[in-house]
Design brief:
CATH architecture of the largest domain: 3-Layer(aba) Sandwich
Number of helices: 15
Structural class: alpha/beta
Strand content: 5-15%
Largest sheet: 4 strands, parallel
Oligomer: single chain
Helix content: 40-55%
Mean pLDDT: 90
Low-confidence stretches: none
Order of helices and strands: EEEHEHHHEEHEHEHEHEEEHEHHHHHHEE
RNA sequence: GCUAAGGUGGCAGAGUCCGGCCGAACGCGGCGGCCUGCAGAGCCGCAUAUCGCCGGUUCAAAUCCGGCCCUUAGCUCCA
């Protein structure tokens, strides 16, 4: 059973074969740091994270590069806003820090490198020079454009034909271009005041900043949007990479242009597999910064926590669009609870028996096998996380049944089940089960246990009203109480 | 207009590439039972699907082919 993925460029599912046997070169199209990240961004990160984790699980070493676009007119437009700093760099640093904090909060595996555009200007310039030397780009009024007619396969990713495309770029740069679809590799001068005003979220007055500029063979200027990814990808991963991941809204023009400029420059295939994640929608339209209908990652983290957010994302395949709603989050929370409760029940049962226990529970044993087989098949089938999650959840029923039966436990089967859940839920899906050894958690556990002891005394004395009051009080601060034959148990929030 | 993805039960969402195991997964919600002092959790079970519409191919179609309708996205910055 090997991995197959749906490649946007062919539109078909293809067997995955990396350039080298051992390593997977993964590039994730990162964020423009002009605002706080929202749940749409985190969806891409999370799916890319699970892909990364699965590739490692099946034995590859993953070199994961995820860029930050820290040079952009929208960033420059926000300079001077309270708390963001006076320069484009300061604004970019502010939001980069907040995005990294979000990523930490979501328990994403760290990328190998997080390259910034501002740190790759020399590489960008030399790539542009290479394109000019090869006859694929031309200078015009201090700006440099890519000539789309020099790359015969232009449009192969998005299936667009040049004659059907409208002009790319700002109206004022069209007169400088040879063809309407040519796109800027380098833009002369700073950010235009019009662009600043268009993206500004506050009034800059007369003191309009113009963003950073760099010296180049064509004069002072700034890199175009698309060239950065090509330059950073090549710098850190080489001319041909295995997987390029990004949101579906980037297929055209961004990824199309990346392919054109990269392959025109090197003559080599830029990325072997293009994987695009479906967009997150709310109320029938996509969540986006420009529409202002977004829910930021940090808000979501404080309201739901990382596990519930993951549970939400993993209820749909990466390639499908997904709708955000309060109901969807509630269901995601319930699904996560189901998984974590079963895990905790299983662990508690396992801790209560010894390895010498011989009772055999064939149904649990076969459930473990089925889960392993089905989970693996699902993940290898284009990272079908919904199917994989279904396999994992079906194991929760088996574990709960086994624990509920109360009879002698099957130590080996239970241990296998717990390890299977840990491997898939934590290592592959990136969930984090609560561990009682955490300092605060440990103290809270002790306190909750103390209260429950008092409640048990009240119950034994028949003071049910008093006992229920104590239970309600615990519930109100998020501690769930559950009575069972073996006495009360509780779960911390 | 051009391009791409999608339309499956109350909700959400697999299955469609490789037609039969799909009398349609997993889950949420609903209903009933077990357990419980009660509740929750858990377990067991039940109900709800003309698989967008029309036609075709086939012994057999949610799955293949053709036409149509609708939704979302891209063609301007966007994950």
């Amino acid at each position: 059973m090997t991995l197959s993925v749906t490649n946007t460029i062919s539109g078909e599912r293809e067997a995955f074969e990396p350039v080298t046997d051992e390593t997977v070169l993964l590039y994730v199209c990162g964020l423009t740091v002009s605002d706080d990240a929202h749940l749409g961004h985190a969806r891409v990160w999370t799916h890319a994270d699970v892909m990364h984790r699965w590739l490692e699980h099946v034995g590859y070493t993953v070199t994961h590069v995820e860029n930050f676009t820290d040079v952009n007119e929208k960033i420059a437009a926000r300079a001077g806003e309270p708390g963001l700093g006076e320069t484009e760099e300061a604004v970019a640093q502010h939001f980069t820090a907040s995005v990294i904090a979000d990523m930490r909060g979501l328990n994403l595996k760290r990328a190998s490198v997080y390259p910034r555009v501002s740190e790759h200007i020399p590489e960008i310039i030399s790539l542009i020079e290479r394109l000019i030397d090869g006859g694929h780009a031309y200078e015009s009024n201090g700006s440099v454009y890519f000539d789309v007619t020099t790359y015969a396969e232009y449009g192969k990713l998005s299936n667009q034909k040049l004659e059907h495309l409208e002009s790319q770029g700002d109206p004022d740069e069209r007169s400088e271009k040879r063809n309407p679809s040519d796109f800027a590799l380098w833009k002369a001068g700073g950010v235009s005041p019009e662009a600043i005003q268009e993206h500004a979220k506050h009034d800059h007055g007369d003191d309009v900043p113009c963003g950073q500029t760099w010296d180049s063979p064509w004069g002072e200027g700034r890199p175009g949007w698309h060239i950065e990814c090509s330059a950073m990808s090549m710098t850190h991963l080489g001319e041909t990479i295995d997987i390029h991941v990004g949101g579906h809204d980037l297929v055209f023009p961004h990824h199309e242009n990346e392919i054109a400029q990269s392959e025109a420059a090197t003559g080599n295939q830029f990325a072997n597999y293009w994987l695009h994640t479906g967009l997150l929608e709310t109320k029938g339209e996509k969540m986006s910064s420009s529409l202002g209908n977004f829910f930021t990652v940090s808000e979501a983290l404080s309201e739901f926590g990382p596990n519930v957010i993951r549970s939400f994302y993993l209820s749909t395949e990466y390639s499908s669009k997904q709708t955000y709603s309060v109901d969807a989050m509630t269901e995601a929370e319930t699904r996560w609870e189901r998984l974590s409760r079963a895990y905790e029940n299983g662990v508690a049962a396992l801790d209560s028996v010894t390895a010498q226990t011989k009772a055999a529970d064939e149904s649990l044993r076969s459930a473990v096998e089925t889960t392993r087989t089905e989970f693996t098949a699902a993940m290898n089938d284009d990272f079908n996380v919904r199917e994989a999650m279904a396999a994992l959840l079906s194991l929760t029923s088996a574990v709960n049944s086994h624990v509920d039966s109360g009879g002698p436990h099957d130590y080996k089967a239970l241990k296998d089940a717990i390890e299977t859940i840990e491997t898939y839920a934590e290592d592959v899906f990136g969930f984090q089960f609560t561990t009682p050894s955490d300092g605060d958690v440990s103290l809270a556990s002790d306190l909750a246990a103390l209260v429950l002891e008092i409640r048990t005394q009240e119950r034994d004395a028949g003071n049910y009203d008093r006992a229920d009051d104590l239970r309600d009080s615990l519930t109100s601060i998020g501690i769930e109480v559950q009575d069972s034959d073996d006495g009360p148990t509780f779960r911390l929030p």
